[in-house]
Amino acid sequence: MLKKPSDVQVYLAKLPSEQRRTVTALRNAILKAKPSLALTLNPWGYLAFSTPTVKYAFVLVPHPKHINLQIYNGAKIARQLPELEGSGKGIRHIRFPYGMAVNTVLVIKAVRLSLAA
Question: Are 71 and 107 in contact (CB under 8 A)?
């Protein structure tokens, strides 16, 4: 019996190839940092990673030329992670251009700092 593809698999399959490569690299880096994160789609249709206490701790938001890794408590770790952009009270993001290698070390550091804050 064939297994029905998950919503996440369907989402990834619909992305243009360049976006899919970047999203996949980011997903792998995030899960390498914390394998127990739950992977879902948020209400806006973006790939989201949740903990037992934070519903959308990390969200990948595609834009025409880059993807943002949104970090729910990025403002708390902004001093430790100067790569974070934004000025919100909570959420900050790191921008990853399509067609460039994802800085896995940076992603792992961001996830671990965020989860420890």
Answer: no
Nearest of 51, 18, 55, 15 to residue 35 by alpha carbon: 51
Return d(Cα 94, Cα 114) in angstroms, integer: 13
Tell me the two tokens of residue 22: 């970047």
Q: How far is CA 8 from CA 11, 46, 55, 82, 94, in A?
A: 5, 9, 16, 30, 22
pTM of the full predicted structure? Answer: 0.92
Buried-state track 66-88, b at ≥16 Cβ within 10 A, e below 16: bbbbbbbbbbbbbeebeebebee
Find the mean pLDDT for residues 18-31: 96
Whole-number pLDDT of residue 5: 65
